């Protein structure tokens, strides 16, 4: 039986790597789209050099039946918006020309036309390039795994950095383990599911409770810095201009302020699996992060 083939952009990132592994385990061949080769080399994976800023060869993605788009240009979000939108348009055009009939976009819970953050507005604008009658848009919660924002914040805790507690730290956080998310995306690809889906644990946990749990499992003390949003915002604006390193930049600060609990009941039925609770996800992910950090020191 011939392998199904999936084209995955952003394949080297936290979510992309988990999706590649889940697809290969499910019997897919993966076109691994990233600037660098996968390390180590993976069976069932073919590296395709890719950058959102670059033009694409005429045969880009030829032979794939599904596109999973997770690449996002880094840098200033305002400056990267044209790059990400234009790059996604180019990618979708290549997909159409080369017969890729199904597309999955990895978006964010922050995606909203009126989002406070550039990141949230950017994700929302890119969502508009997809057609949910035939495509799937996936909005994951905070992804817990060895990479991305979660790893950066774990590194901060390990260094003993202060954790800002904005307006009491009551923001509702909904999380998803990277492997759970990857399995859900693989099922969407395999079963040709279209629509917009929120993939996160259904019961939110307060921001303060979440980070206290991470610190407890790491067995490190946590030092919260209670601060009002307006003052934190002022500090972040000044830090962006100088620049001064802060535990939370303005984009993350605006994301925190805009956090709202999302309903995921029907989406959980669609993806057909139960997700790990936040504390279970932390317990699974932390040993990998701590081990890799220990090797670097």
Structure explained in plain terms:
The model has no long low-confidence stretch (mean pLDDT 87). The longest helix has 21 residues, at 77-97. A seven-stranded parallel β-sheet has the order 3-2-1-4-5-6-11, sandwiched between helices. The chain has a two-stranded parallel ribbon with strand order 7-10. Strand 5 (102-106), helix 3 and strand 6 (136-140) form a beta-alpha-beta unit. It has helices at residues 14-25, 77-97, 118-127, 148-158, 178-190, 207-218, 229-241, 250-257, 265-271, 278-296; strands at residues 4-9, 28-34, 45-49, 66-69, 102-106, 136-140, 142-144, 163-166, 172-173, 175-177, 195-199, 205-206, 224-227. It has ten helices and 13 strands. The chain is of the alpha/beta class and 297 residues long. It has a single domain (4-296), classed as Rossmann fold, CATH 3.40.50.720. Helix 1 (14-25) crosses helix 5 (178-190), helix 2 packs parallel to helix 3 (118-127) and helix 7 packs antiparallel against helix 8.
């Amino acid at each position: 039986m011939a392998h199904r083939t999936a084209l995955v952009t952003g394949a080297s990132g936290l979510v992309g790597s988990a999706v590649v592994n889940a697809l290969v385990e499910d019997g897919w061949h993966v076109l691994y789209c990233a600037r660098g080769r996968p390390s180590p080399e993976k069976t069932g994976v073919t590296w395709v050099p890719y950058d959102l800023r670059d033009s694409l060869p005429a045969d880009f993605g030829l032979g794939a039946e599904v596109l999973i788009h997770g690449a996002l240009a880094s840098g200033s979000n305002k400056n990267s918006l044209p790059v990400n939108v234009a790059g996604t348009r180019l990618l979708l055009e290549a997909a159409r020309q080369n017969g890729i009939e199904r597309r999955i976009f990895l978006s964010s819970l922050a995606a909203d036309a009126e989002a406070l953050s550039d990141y949230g507005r950017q994700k929302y604008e890119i969502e508009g390039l997809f057609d949910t009658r035939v495509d799937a848009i996936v909005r994951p919660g905070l992804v817990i795994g060895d990479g991305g924002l979660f790893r950066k914040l774990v590194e901060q805790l390990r260094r003993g950095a202060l954790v800002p507690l904005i307006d009491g730290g009551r923001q509702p956080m909904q999380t998803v383990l990277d492997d759970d998310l990857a399995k859900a995306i693989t099922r969407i690809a395999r079963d040709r599911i279209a629509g917009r889906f929120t993939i996160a644990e259904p019961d939110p946990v307060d921001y303060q409770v979440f980070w206290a749990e991470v610190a407890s499992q790491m067995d490190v003390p946590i030092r919260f810095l209670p601060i009002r949003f307006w003052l934190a915002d002022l500090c972040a604006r000044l830090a962006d201009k100088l620049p001064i390193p802060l535990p939370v930049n303005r984009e993350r600060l605006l994301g925190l302020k805009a956090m709202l609990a999302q309903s995921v009941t029907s989406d959980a039925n669609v993806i057909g699996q139960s997700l790990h609770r936040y504390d279970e996800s932390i317990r699974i992910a932390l040993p990998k992060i701590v081990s890799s950090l220990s090797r670097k020191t």
